[in-house]
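Example 434.
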Amino acid sequence: FLSLSLQAKMSRPVQARRLEGTDKNIWVEFVKLAATYSKVNLGQGFPDFPPPDFLKESFVRALSGENYMLHQYTRAFGHPPLVKILAQFFGKLLGRDLDPMTNVMVTVGAYQALFCCFQALVDEGDEVIIIEPFFDCYEPMVKMAGGTPVFVPLRLKAPKDGKLMSSADWQLDPAELASKFSERTKAIVLNSPNNPLGKVFSREELELIADLCVKHDVLCISDEVYEWLVYDGKEHIRIASLRGMWDHTVTIGSAGKTFSATGWKVGWTVGPNRLLQHLRTVHQNSVYHCATIAQEAVAQGFQRELELYGKPDSYFVQLPKELQQKRDWLVQSLDAVGMKPIIPEGTYFLVADISKFKSDVPDVPDSDEPYDSRFAKWMVKNKGLAAIPLSAFYSGAHKNNYNHFIRFCFAKEEATLKAANDILQKWKREKTSP
Ligand code: PMP
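Predicted structure in complex with 4'-deoxy-4'-aminopyridoxal-5'-phosphate:
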């Protein structure tokens, strides 16, 4: 009798159905590989240089200052000084008055902001449009909420003869995008500047998306974590600022990306109360609250940036200037060895074409694993250089659409980029010599 009931218990599945098909995670896999094998890690997206001094100093002041209440709980939906300054800052950017208590919510990084959006706004059977290639967590998060992801690709237009490709060469087909909207569509996820390509969506492209959202009463989850990282004088346009879009949009940001402090895990959402009130429900019933001291320090960082807005001393002006130089460096060093870079207009990522290096890592016919993934693994194990395969940013069915690109992160010290260059140069010499 006892063993029967034990057997019944053993055969009952322990895993909740909502986790089905979401157990693999590219970051878990590639972070481990990089930790084991890499000499130079241009894989996961984080700077290897420190955050700005003013931010570190704010953190230290918050930690050891007189206000010991900063070691205790604060308001669930965001530490008051932080939501106040975010409302002021984004109010200015969006050209509208924002209420810190209802139009802003602080989250544990942009990751939790995304999670709150999908849990709060997507129901069983809802469709969510995702533009490929995409930051990988959108797909499992939609699925966990019971929704169905519907993918629409950025299509690569051939660049002009002899010119390097640009992330702007990847474009939406307007008719194809429109065909994905239906009565079942609840939301579209937009990520501009886009990880992994570095594409900065143009006003025309954003208006196309906005018009479809308004026409079909579809929500827009706008992941803008790289909002300050745009190059060559390009402009980052917030889709929430386009006509009719405020009421349809949740805008997501990240102090990790904004202030080069990814480990602090401070993120936020900005949007109309009609949407944010439901995000607050998810937040209060799950995470409830984010680290007070990190929120306090980020609030002070934004205070400084508000005062210096648009001025040369602003970190939001300086960081992209420095990163553009790093981008140009990596573009040059990849181009010199024949690993053709796609010049990114934004973000701190760069996708490169590995076609000329394929002879070093022969294809395995009928392998389940996309070629670029095997290439990236081979590269970190044999050359000590870590990067992320582009297929990681495609849905299961489309992982083989492009199999000859890998993504590098260039938010790295000069010495790191130089070490990457040395590896690539040596590799090229070994390839060409008999
Ligand atoms: N969205 C995008 C597009 C990202 O690239 C990342 C981080 N790589 C996130 C969200 C998550 O940001 P956070 O570290 O603030 O959780």
